[in-house]
Amino acid sequence: MIKLVACDIDGTLLHGDDTRINPKIFEKIKLLKQKGILFCAASGRQYINLQRLFTPVADEIYYSCENGAVVFGPGNPGPLLGKTVMDRDLVRKLSQEIMDQPNCEVLFSGAYMCYLWPKKPDTLELISPFVDKLITVGSIDEITEDFVKVSAYCRDGAAKYERMWGPVWSSHCNVAIGGEKWLDFTLSDKGVGIATVCRALGIHPSEVMAIGDNYNDLPMLKLVGSPVIMENAVPELRNMFTRKCRDVESVLDALLNT
To answer: What is the full DSSP assignment across the chain?
Structure first.
């Protein structure tokens, strides 16, 4: 029996230039809760950004944020259920490599705040739609809180940088494409985040359905008992999972009708 639905956001609930989640999703989340099935937003996005996206149900769902590096329970704000901190020296070396690439910008994530070290005038405008609480800095030394994620915003696409940095950094941290132009570095992953939610709820991962579309979704898709891959995912990912869907709404409808 499914007791939790964990759902990716970008490329799964939001497509293309979408900035708002279909209101029908919120209705279905509420109906699922009445059936004893809870919902978790599982994303590389920031906690407060996810809360805004899910405003009608913001205090009723769980949040696996920053690719599982910080996990929150229901509430406004909800309790912090888990946090995976990156070593500051590692972050320093990694961020310098990102800054050395002309077409890359670096974004640092804390549990509640993000920090941008911009190189070009339009960087803030490009990144602000993905982040709600953001401070610009001129050095990593201006950031005093714990780091939970480092992201490279790659103007010419994340795939080429994943091929370049993946072999170098994968022995130190998880390296995952989080979107067309985003490459994320964490000590956590979405599987760790969902496992944290499972422990808080006292349920087994086999009782979880996860829906995703990208490489950073793989850890949670492999963890759960009922993985669902989006039809718009790359062929390599689609071939790994049997169940596919065109939209999240249809998956939630099927759960409501069981």
So the answer is: ---EEEE--BTTTB-TT--S--HHHHHHHHHHHHTT-EEEEE-SS-HHHHHHHTGGGTTTSEEEEGGGTEEE-SSTTPPEEEE-PBPHHHHHHHHHHHHTSTTEEEEEE-SS-EEEE-SSTTHHHHHGGG-SSEEE-SSGGG--SPB-EEEEEETT-SHHHHHHHHHHHTTTSEEEEEETTEEEEES--HHHHHHHHHHHHT--GGGEEEEE-SGGGHHHHHHSSEEEEETTS-HHHHTT-S-EES-HHHHHHHHHT-
Cβ neighbors of 27 (< 8 A, separation 6 or more) are none
Burial (CB count within 10 angstroms: exposed 0-12, middle 13-18, buried 19+), residue 257: exposed
- Determine the angle formed by the axes of helices 248-256 and 23-34, rounding to 10 degrees: 30
Predicted pLDDT at 35 = 96
85-119 pLDDT per residue, tens? 999 999 999 999 999 999 999 999 999 999 999 99
The pLDDT tens digits for 209-236 are 999 998 889 999 999 999 999 999 988 8
